[in-house]
Design a protein that fits this description.
The protein is α/β, with parallel strands linked by helices. It is built from five helices and five strands. The longest helix has 21 residues. It is globular. The two termini are 16 Å apart.
Length: 127
Amino acid sequence: MDILLVVRDKLIRDQVKVGLQQFPEFSVTTGEGYAAINELRQRHCDCVFVASDPSDGEGLRLINHLRSFDRTTEVVPIATERHARDMAGEKSRLNIAAFLNTPIQPAEFFRLVGRLRARKLESEARR
C-alpha cells in the first residue's frame, strides 16, 4: 500500500510515519504542500494523510486541490478533534475516508490503519 504524508509538523509526521512503517506492505513517502499533492498526478498512492490546521486552512485547500483531479485516493486529514468536527460537513463532498485526531492516540491510529488495510483488501478482492 503506497501512502503519502503531507504533514509540515515534524513530530506528527514522524509519529505517523513510524506507525505506518510497522506494516511491511506499506511504502511511505513524505512531502509538503502543493508539490507533494501534485506528485499524485504522476504516480498512484492508495492513501494520503494531510495535516489540517484551522489557523492557515492549508490542509483543506490541499484536499480540495487533490479532489480536483483525483476522487479515488483515500484521504485522511490529521487535525485536532475540534477542527475535525468542523470539517465533518465536508466529509462526503471531499470523499474523506476518516479523520485522525491530534494528539495522536496509538489505539485510535492503529484502528484507523486496520480499517484502511481492510478496505484495500476488499477492493482488491472485487477486481
